[in-house]
Amino acid sequence: MRHLLLALPLLVGLCIPAQAQTQFSIGIEMPGMSIGINMPSYPQLQRVPGYPVYYAPQASANYFFYDGVYWVFEGDDWYASHWYNGPWRRVGREAVPLFVLRVPVRYYRQPPGFFRGWRDDAPPRWGEHWGRDWERSRPNWDRWDRRQAPAPAPLPTYQQKYPQSRYPQGDAQRSIRGDQYRYQPREPVVRQQFLPPVPRQVSPPPRPVPRPPERARPEAPRERTPAAAPPQRAPAVAPPPQREPDRGRSDSNRGNRPDDAGKQGPRKADKDDRKDDRKDDRKDDGGGRGRP
User: Fold this and answer.
1) What is the pLDDT of residues 124-167, one digit of tens each?
2) Where do the structural domains in the chain lie, given as residue ranges?
3) Residue 197 · residue 178 · CB < 8 Å
4) Read out DSSP for 121-156?
5) Which of 23, 174, 185, 197 would bridge with 60, disulfide CB 3.0–4.6 Å?
6) Contact predicate 89/80, CB 8 Å
């Protein structure tokens, strides 16, 4: 009996169908915690008719692809990743793209219990489930013109070359995606949070441009302070011309001076007259003496 009880678990494991063992299992990677998502290879994706969204019909999970990113609805939360097998990042309900929320119920391969009773051809009643506060933050989320639906993003089929045994991690994922997938997402949440940065070539720093030698700037002219005027001296008064003394001079010389011209003129004339009279007298005397 004891040996029979030990053999029962082994018999139960052998009776599990092989199909159930190969189904995909969904797990979530969170900071400090990794549940894991086990997809052995790139999943087969089909487009939801009339929507720019793909779903995985063979996956036992609510697995979608939209705007270049994989989306998974697990429990009561949404998660996203740019590679088919994660790592996954939780997305707030207010940030999930509207076209993902609009996918009809029938394309959820593992619908939660609160989906029961909802129409298969209509989107889930998120406003009814998440409350009015959420519905106010996403008004008219289920109303859209089907004729103006955007084209779906191209599938990242390059990931088919990376099965679970060769699945890249970390920086290798970002590098491969940057080289192989050039699609630019349209959703702000995808552009800001889930699109890995495209690797850029680091250009060498620019060479410093030699600065021309600075020219000596001309000095500003200095303001000259006016020199103090020299003290004015009183003009020198020239002394009056001194007259030479009349001593030792003849009367004839005195008369030649301009100063004495008017004064000595009459005296000289009188002297000349006197000299002439004396000469005449002498002549008379001599003539008389010389006569017989």
Assistant:
1) 999 999 999 999 999 999 999 988 889 999 999 999 999 999 99
2) 23-194
3) yes
4) TS---HHHHH-HHHHHHSTTTT---GGGPPPPPPP-
5) 23
6) yes
